[in-house]
Design brief:
This protein is α/β, with parallel strands linked by helices. About 45% of the residues lie in helices and about 5% in strands. The strands form 3 sheets. The protein has a 10-stranded parallel β-sheet. Helix 18 runs parallel beside helix 21. The longest helix is centred in the first third of the chain and has 17 residues. It is elongated, with a radius of gyration of 35 Å. InterPro entries: ARM-like, ARM-type_fold, Armadillo, LRR_dom_sf, LRR_Zer-1, ZER1-like_C, Zyg-11_UBL_adapter. Interacts with the ELOC-ELOB/Elongin BC complex. Part of an E3 ubiquitin ligase complex including ZER1, CUL2 and Elongin BC. Keywords: Acetylation, Leucine-rich repeat, Repeat, Ubl conjugation pathway.
Length: about 750
């Protein structure tokens, strides 16, 4: 199903929701007094659409950095006559008291508030407005919802004061919530009396008390005929707890798992406790005992185990107490216990750390509410992806993406998740991934880069981007990815390895893309950033990959982009060129990249006068003799001079060297090149070369252009013959053959 799901296009509903949220003003709303969003009066939307709008809005605010939240978004749903809400899931800092207040007239059936730390006791009062319809409620991690501002009239006797002068509300209960069946109070603040809070609820079906310490849970038996799911994650248990649980005979899902790193637990699991569960909880289909230490050995001795294929039949179970099960469990949580490594485990799905399947089950089960466990599970997945081969690649990728989106600010998850992504997107898995999935990976990688300045995360994210075809696969986020990389490169203190990868990516991003992209990136400060990097390297007297990539990136970004060429000159690029030439006389790659760039500058007529100094012309003339990188440096130097010569003798505003002397050296250079040279250069257009053909003012420029075309079409005919025809080169060559001023050898070559 993962295979299918990943490649189908988004539903029309999803696309419309996304579009409306990104363009509220142009679709559902208008702006009142230029600030408040108001729904158009003729709009009436059912709950299927409104729920999706709200839930998708929360998702966008959380995972899309470009998306701007609206102060007045929730007020759009204040009137049930035009908009209906039924099931909404709100998370984190996105929601404040006034947002819930705005929708208090809605008949909510399901309200999940996850880690909404900004909600205070004002929102408890708002919850009462939903009491007659609410069936499902989660207040997981809403750590301030039982606090109210201290009343100015002095504190009553029965209130605890916490340091921020907020008072714990003691008198709220679920009185009147007659339909409430599913309740999650995970990570509830200490001091709230859970028993009093819950007593008014007639028939609870599911209760989650994760991370709450209760010495007495006897009150749970009041729902022994209705409770089918109980979660006591990280509650320190005792014999009394176990006796109470054993009375809840309707339970189908029991979770007493714990984080074995979080704190010291006295409780140890025994064979007797597991037997008690199996005997009494006959409807059990899901049990989680992850993180527990077994006090005694519960395993069947291996000689008694039936050999052969692993079996999920309870009768063959390697865990003795589970031989009493009537049928295999749907889910058994054994993460970070010794039991997950046994042979026969009587469950269809097991979370554990033994193999890929168990690890993926763990990530899937714990991502939402237990990032501390999830990050360790992702770390195990990272090892599997790195050392072995992942067999459930799409599922693994999707789970890691979900975890990274869900816990954007959790450092452990960002570090392990970004590292796992690097291995899950590398080339050997390439074939199995759809465009949509790869887009999702890029999105979460960029989110990680944005919200985390941490070195490891930045490096992992940059490395992961290197697994993609650049620029094609990053085209849909082109501006954003460039901004992030330039941001990394502009930081004052830099990690060497990140700098190297980031410059490499920048270079790849401006290679072979349209000019408007190059202009846009130029305006973001690309040219300046590269020149600063070069300046730093020059000061350290090092010519490394960063130095070479930076010049290469400048070569790429100035290609047929006059604005960027001008920026290069304005930011003293020529000064750096001369200094690099002097400091690194032997570095061939560097010389080639620098001259390629100057070739681009020389193609711009308005900028050529700035190259017309004795110093520059002498340098270019001397480089004609260079043997660096085959013919590349000599060829590029000759190209620069060919454009300058094309402006005619009257533009030659210097006494030394003489124009004729330079022309002579150019002829000599061209004649010394091997016409069959393989090339280290890539032309997207011949236009700058072709413009040197129909002119008589500089025969040597004509000859250089003809030589360039002849070499490229004879060595790479498949690539360059069509380009020459497409850009109208053939008639230009024919006309040139008839010109009196053209040299004989040029005509022959033409």
């Amino acid at each position: 199903s993962f295979e299918m799901a990943s490649d189908s296009p988004e539903s029309l509903m999803t696309l419309c929701t996304d579009y409306c949220l990104r363009n509220l003003e142009g679709t559902l709303c208008y702006l009142l007094d230029n600030e408040t969003l108001r729904l158009h009066p003729d709009i009436f939307l059912p709950s299927e659409i409104c729920d999706k709008l709200v839930n998708e809005y929360v998702e966008l605010v959380k995972t899309d950095s470009i998306f701007e939240p609206h102060e007045s978004f929730f007020t759009l749903f204040s009137d049930p006559r035009s908009t209906r809400l039924a099931r909404i899931h709100l998370r984190e800092q996105i929601v404040q008291d006034q947002d819930l207040e705005a929708i208090r007239k809605q008949d909510l059936v399901e309200l999940y508030l996850t880690n909404c730390e900004k909600l205070t006791a004002k929102s408890l009062q708002t919850l009462v407005s939903f009491s007659h319809t609410l069936i499902s409620l989660s207040l997981f991690g809403c750590c301030n919802i039982f606090y109210e501002e201290e009343n100015p009239g002095g504190c009553e006797d029965d209130c605890l004061v916490n340091p921020t002068r907020q008072v714990l509300v003691k008198d709220f209960t679920f009185e009147g919530f007659s339909r409430l069946r599913f309740l999650n109070l995970g990570r509830l603040i200490e001091g709230v009396n859970v028993e009093t809070l819950l007593r008014p609820l007639a028939s609870l079906a599911a209760l989650d008390l994760s991370g709450i310490q209760l010495n007495d849970v006897g009150f749970l038996t009041q729902w022994k005929d209705s409770l089918i799911s109980l979660v006591l994650y990280n509650m320190d248990l005792s014999e009394e707890h176990i006796q109470v649980i054993a009375q809840l005979r309707k339970l189908r899902h029991l979770d007493i798992s714990r984080d074995h790193l979080s704190s010291y637990y006295k409780f140890k699991l025994t064979r007797r406790v597991l037997n008690l569960f199996v005997e009494n909880l006959v409807n059990l289909t899901s049990l989680d005992i992850s993180g527990h230490t077994m006090l005694e050995n519960c395993t069947i001795p291996s000689m008694e185990e039936k050999m052969g294929q692993t079996s999920i039949e309870p009768a063959k179970s390697s865990i003795a107490p589970f031989r009493g099960l009537k049928r295999p469990l749907q889910f058994l949580g054994l993460f970070e216990t010794s039991l997950c490594r046994l042979t026969h485990i009587p469950a269809y799905k097991v979370s554990g750390d033994k193999n890929e399947e168990q690890v993926l089950n763990a990530i899937e089960a714990y991502t939402e509410h237990r990032p501390e466990i999830t990050s360790r599970a992702i770390n195990l997945l990272f090892d599997i992806a790195r050392i072995e081969r992942c067999s459930q690649l799409l599922r693994a990728l999707q789970l890691v993406i979900t975890a990274l989106k869900c816990h954007k600010d959790d450092k452990n998850i960002q570090v392990t998740g970004s590292a796992a992504l690097f291995y899950l997107t590398n080339s050997e898995y390439r074939m199995e991934q759809s465009v949509k999935l790869r887009h999702q990976v890029i999105q979460v990688v960029l989110n990680g880069m944005e919200s985390y300045q941490e070195v490891t995360v930045q490096r992992n994210c940059c490395l992961t981007l290197c697994n993609f075809s650049i620029p094609e696969e990053l085209e849909f986020q082109y501006r954003r990815v460039n901004e992030l990389l330039l941001n990394i490169l502009n930081q004052s203190r830099q990690d060497e390895s990140i700098q190297r990868i980031a410059v490499h990516l920048c270079n790849a991003l401006v290679c072979q893309v349209d000019n408007d992209h190059k202009e846009a990136v130029g305006k973001m400060g690309f040219v300046m950033t590269m020149l600063k990097l070069i300046q730093k390297k020059l000061a350290d007297k090092t010519c490394d990959q960063v130095m070479e990539f930076s010049w290469s990136a400048l070569w790429n970004i100035t290609d047929e982009t006059p604005d960027n060429c001008e920026m290069f000159l304005n930011y003293s690029g020529m000064k750096l060129f001369l200094e690099c030439l002097k400091e690194f006389p032997e570095k061939q790659e560097l010389h080639r990249n620098m001259l390629g760039l100057l070739g681009n500058v020389a193609e711009v007529k308005e900028l050529r006068p700035q190259l017309m100094t004795s110093q520059f012309i002498s340098v270019f003339s001397n480089l004609l003799e260079s043997k660096a990188d085959g013919i590349e440096v000599s060829y590029n130097a000759c190209g620069v001079l060919s454009h300058i010569m094309f402006d005619g003798p009257e533009a030659w505003g210097i006494c030394e060297p003489h124009r004729e002397e330079v022309v002579k050296r150019m002829w000599a250079a061209i004649q010394s090149w091997d016409i069959n040279s393989r090339r280290n250069i890539n032309y997207r257009s011949f236009e700058p070369i072709l413009r040197l053909l129909p002119q008589g003012i500089s025969p040597v420029s004509q000859h250089w252009a003809t030589w360039a075309l002849y070499n490229l079409v004879s060595v790479y005919p498949d690539k360059y013959c069509p380009l020459l025809i497409k850009e109208g080169g053939i008639p230009l060559l024919k006309d040139m053959i008839k010109m009196a001023s053209a040299r004989q050898e040029t005509k022959e070559m033409a």
